[in-house]
Write a structure and sequence with these properties.
heterodimer; A: 267 residues; alpha/beta; ten-stranded mixed sheet; 6 helices; 31% strand; globular; B: 274 residues; kinase (chain B); Thiamin_pyrophosphokinase_euk (chain B); thiamine binding (chain B); thiamine diphosphokinase activity (chain B)
């Protein structure tokens, strides 16, 4: 089974050169895109923004960037911050974006795409489809889509956002909040996760959302699984702890991997 | 298409009457229930005093005690803070006690809260331990009319949230409702057909049905804007999010356990005279 590599290097203050390891090839350099949904920005949003080559706001996510980015730089002029953190595209059904925010970004030449005719898919789904088609990278396995504002708030929105991970299981998509990140470990691959200890951990978990797992095995965790069955109603791996900086996971089911984010992350 | 749905004759009724002031819930309301409240360690919803007023048993899971101690007085800013703290004293504080502040621990212990130190048991999470405790305490109760309300189960660390959702599945024979300022969540077990009586002054219209434990081959609903009709639901494909309640009664019948969620209308009028 092919191995899929993961590393939250987008959380590191500076891109770190990957040191070659004896046991593995270094993960390929990734191209990042950022999608901002309509919830309060995490404190490290500027870090992700600076790492991304494509930045998309989903509807009211534009309000969040307009209002909250300046708050993350309290010593700087708010308008200057807004000009520095201008999205490439604003997309969605546009029923949440404020008129003043829309006008501000229109005047800056931001592309605003009204998709209110499409009520079948969520804002995140639309943005992921757009990013997948537009991102400046030919090999989609080298694209990583970072999403803020997908967790918390209305539970049906959160679950809809998690379902986007399942629907686009061939894409790397990471949902981030102040407290943690989550991403899918598709069953089609075995997985190696290089934990970035300065910025993430130690709390972690593996959750079989959508379907149970008959057999999951891990290495590198405090409580490893060994051909262990996991399901809602039975065992799921939560409040686990990373014990080594390399975690391996292989499973017969799609799993959600989650790891806590250390506070504070400095830009 | 041949429906593979097993004909369930048992009906389970649900009504979020705990979101209405006590005066609005008549004594003859056959859906009236006995409540327990579990407070986990996250910011309490603004309507926590209303839940507290409905509950016969109030349990704080470890740092949940800090949240009541700090958070409830803030909901009554015009009142004497110490008086409020004396009025909202949990019956039980349970957990491994590594989050509760010493002064909070002492305050409630002196006022008669039962403190149960669970630090030896690292196998299950705080919510599981509290629900097990409630199960033991209420074995004499009629469980069909007993309901556990939980605050602080959502948000924060995702693995905590997943463990809290799992508690609904592990204790699927108990009524448990997870609450935040934005929404409520409960399990609709596949063993029953479900009738949800919408309290439209306090909840809705946004709702959803999710098969997080495993796919549904056939789910049928009535009363929603986008009803399901022998519909398949699974992650990676269609699940019912951003739906809306259309009628006062929603029915759900499924071959799979489903999570039901509905948004809350805020502010929730508590109708409390302090």
């Amino acid at each position: 089974m092919e191995v899929m590599w993961h590393a939250s290097s987008f959380l590191l203050p500076q891109p770190q050169p990957q040191e070659p390891r004896e046991d593995a090839p270094p993960p390929a350099a990734l191209t990042y895109a950022l999608i901002v949904l309509n919830q309060r920005l995490p404190r490290f949003a500027p870090l992700l923004w600076n790492r991304a080559q494509l930045r998309v706001c989903a509807d009211g996510g534009a309000n969040r960037v307009y209002d909250n980015m300046p708050k993350l730089f309290p010593d700087q002029d708010p308008q200057e911050v807004r000009l520095r953190y201008t999205p490439d595209v604003i997309k969605g059904d546009l029923d949440s974006i404020r008129d003043d925010v829309k006008e501000f970004y229109l005047n800056l030449g931001v592309r605003i795409v009204d998709e209110s005719h499409d009520q079948d898919t969520t804002d995140l789904h639309k943005c992921v489809a757009y990013v997948s088609g537009s991102a400046p990278v030919e090999d989609k396995s080298k694209l990583c889509i970072l999403v803020v504002g997908a967790l918390g708030g209305r539970f049906d929105h959160e679950i809809g956002n998690i379902n986007v991970l399942h629907r686009f299981s061939n894409l790397r998509i990471v949902l981030l909040s102040d407290d943690c990140l989550i991403h899918l470990l598709p069953k089609t691959h075995s997985h190696v996760i290089h934990v970035q200890l300065p910025v993430e951990g130690p709390h972690c978990g593996l959750i079989p959302i959508g379907a149970p797992s008959a057999r999951t095995s891990t290495t590198g965790l405090q409580w490893n699984l060994s051909d262990t069955a996991m399901s809602f109603g039975g065992l799921i791996s939560t409040s686990n702890v990373v014990k080594e900086d390399k975690i391996t996971v292989s499973s017969d089911a799609d799993l959600i991997w989650t790891i806590s984010i250390k506070k504070p992350i400095k830009e | 298409m041949v429906s593979r749905l097993v004909q369930n004759t048992k009906v389970m009724k649900h009504a979020a009457t705990f979101l209405l002031p006590s005066s609005a819930v008549s004594a003859t309301n056959r859906l009236a229930q006995t409540y327990a409240l579990v407070v986990l360690n996250q910011q309490i919803p603004k309507f926590t005093p209303l839940l507290w007023s409905h509950a016969k048993l109030r349990i704080c899971a470890d740092g949940g005690a800090n949240r009541i101690f700090d958070g409830v007085p803030k909901l009554f800013p015009d009142q004497n803070q110490l008086n409020i703290q004396h009025r909202y004293v949990p019956n039980v504080i349970k957990g491994d006690m590594d989050s509760i502040r010493p002064e909070v621990h002492q305050f409630y212990a002196e006022l008669g809260s039962e403190i149960i130190d669970d630090s030896e048991n690292q196998d299950t999470n705080d919510l599981h331990k509290c629900i097990s405790f409630i199960q033991e305490q209420t074995s004499a109760f009629d469980h069909s009319n007993f309901c556990t309300l939980v605050t602080g189960a959502l948000g924060g660390r995702f693995d905590h949230e997943a463990a809290n959702l799992n508690a609904l599945y592990v204790f699927s024979d108990m009524r448990i409702v997870l609450l935040s300022d934005d929404c409520q969540i409960r399990l609709l077990p596949k063993t029953h057909q479900h009738e949800i009586h919408i309290q439209s002054t306090v909840e809705g219209p946004h709702c959803g049905l999710f098969p997080i434990g495993g796919p549904s081959v056939s789910t049928t609903t009535t009363g929603l804007t986008w009803d399901l009709c022998n519909s398949e639901m699974k992650f990676g494909s269609m699940i019912s999010t951003s739906n809306k309640v259309r009628e006062e009664k929603v029915t759900v019948c499924s071959d799979a356990d489903l999570l039901w969620t509905i948004s809350l209308k805020t502010p929730i009028h508590m109708g409390l005279t302090c």
